[in-house]
Design goal:
Keywords: Coiled coil. The protein is built from nine helices and no strands. With 219 residues, the protein is mostly helical.
Length: 219
């Protein structure tokens, strides 16, 4: 599935520079990157699926995206880039992330999209949502800043995860303490048994030694 990018979105992303676009693509897992690049036209002279071909495909993709004049290559490049955007969202937002194929990236549609996203995925980091919007096909929207505030910052999410998992961690800690205590008790019992055996052996050795002494006196 691919989406059309608005002219304003193209300009916004282009201003970021090629290195930022490459960084965004590289944030996607290698498996999904290969899948996305596999949807691009084959490059003559390169072996399909090899790193050299993927590198050349990326070079051509970004080169066509940065064309100053509209062309079929430029339009196809942006449609292809939307696939990377989709895969990025599936990994950073949620696997079930989707967007209506016929959605038009019109004025104010960005904030509407973000607010709908907040209803479906309220526990996504604000930083990820901002990045999702920056590389989306939506035009800049004054209200989108307010929509971002519907999401918690990454640091808050991390804190909540720690708080939520604290009872589980305490239970695990108690279980480990109990296990350690049992192990210590078992080892103490083993030591006591060993000491008892040593004492018994020592007594038997003394008895044997005394018997030998008596036998020698008799002789």
């Amino acid at each position: 599935m691919s989406y059309q990018y608005s002219q304003e979105a193209k300009e916004r992303i282009s201003k970021l520079g090629q290195s930022e676009i490459i960084d965004f693509i590289n944030e996607i897992s290698p498996a999904l990157r290969r899948k996305a690049f596999g949807c691009l036209p084959k490059v003559p002279g390169f072996r399909v699926g090899y790193p050299t071909e993927i590198k050349e495909k990326q070079k051509r993709l970004i080169g066509h995206m940065f064309q100053s004049h509209p062309s079929s290559e430029e339009r196809n490049a942006w449609k292809s880039f939307s696939l990377f955007w989709q895969f990025w969202a599936e990994e950073k937002i949620d696997k079930s992330f989707s967007i209506h194929e016929n959605l038009r990236f019109e004025e104010n549609s960005g904030s509407v999209f973000i607010r709908e996203l907040a209803k479906k995925f309220p526990k996504v980091a604000k930083e990820n949502v901002k990045r999702l919007f920056i590389f989306s096909g939506f035009a800049d929207d004054p209200d989108v800043i307010n929509a971002f505030d519907l999401f918690p910052p990454a640091v808050v999410l991390a804190r909540d995860i720690v708080v939520d998992t604290l009872p589980i961690r305490l239970d695990e800690l108690e279980a480990r303490i109990d296990l350690t205590a049992n192990n210590v008790e078992e080892k103490n019992n083993n030591i006591k048994n060993l000491e008892s055996k040593i004492d018994t052996f020592s007594e038997q050795l003394d008895m044997c030694f005394n018997n030998e002494k008596r036998n020698l006196k008799i002789i």
